[in-house]
Structure formats: structure tokens, C-alpha cells
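Q: Polyisoprenoid-binding protein YceI, please. Structure only.
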Amino acid sequence: MKTQNFKIEAQQSRVEWIGKKVTGAHNGTIAIKEGNFIFNDGKLSGGNVSIDTTSIIILDVTDPATNAQFAGHLASDDFFSSESFPTASLEITSVRQHSETSYHVEGNLTIKGITHSIGFDLKTTVTGETLTASGKIIIDRTKYDMKFRSGNFFTNLGDTLIYNEFELNVNLVAKAI
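A: Structure for Polyisoprenoid-binding protein YceI:
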């Protein structure tokens, strides 16, 4: 069995987030700290990714003061508690291949020290020593003690309600090591 390890190139990779609320949505990016993918006989078999929760950038709020206030709120205990938990992580626990380049990935996602299993589809391409991987991960923030303005925990929120699920759209580049 041939095993190949691919180290994620954080600077070449991009993770975009989208959070939705009754009156619209916000979006931005968050940086990868480190990670890798393991392939056995040319097929994805495992890996892990660490995200830097202190790196959250908001792209749709252009006023600098409002942007800074919003970023501070996302870093606060209402959301990511970035000072106490500067990283979030995903450990791949199982992989089911759909096609030559498409997989269903199951893993343990840890945010704020709280771990839950999560599943998502991932497309991969290996060209020489370079791996690219892309997918969309839907996360229920309330499972990770992010209850701020959630309809599951608060009533009469009206148009201030924030939906429980947020999306991460990942586009990763990794190099064989």
C-alpha cells in the first residue's frame, strides 16, 4: 500500500464563511493554521485541519469602525471565544469514496473545546505533487455554545434572529511531503 501525505499550504488555501440572519447575511474569510491529508493507494483516507479563529475577516462590512466592532463580537464568548480557543480543528475519522475525485468525509469538529461529528462532501484532485480539495461544510453553531440570537434559545427575536447554521466553503491546496 502506497501512503502519500499532503501538507496544506495555508497561504494558497482559502476558507470563506457565510452567516445568515433574517435580514440578510454576512461573509468573510478565516485562515487555516495547518493541516494535512493522507492518501492510501491514491484514495483519500484521513487527515486533519486546524483553523485560526483569531483570523476572522469580515468582507461585507466596509465601515472600519463597524467592521472592527463586528469582528470583536465574533471573537467574543458569544461566538468563537478566540482568546480562550484560538484554534478550531477537524479530524477526519472516515471517508467513503463516491467517484474518482469525490468523497463523503466524516470527522470530529472541535470548536471552543466542544467536539461533535460532522459530515460533508469533498472533491479532490491530485496533479503530481499538488492536491486541491474543495467542499462546503454546514455547521450548527449552537452545538458549539454559540447561542447568540438563536431562535432555539431566545424568543421574540423578530428580525434580529441569526440562523443556527453557517457555511464554510473550503478551497485547499496541499503539497506532497
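A: Brief note, in case it's useful. The chain is about 5% helix and 60% strand.
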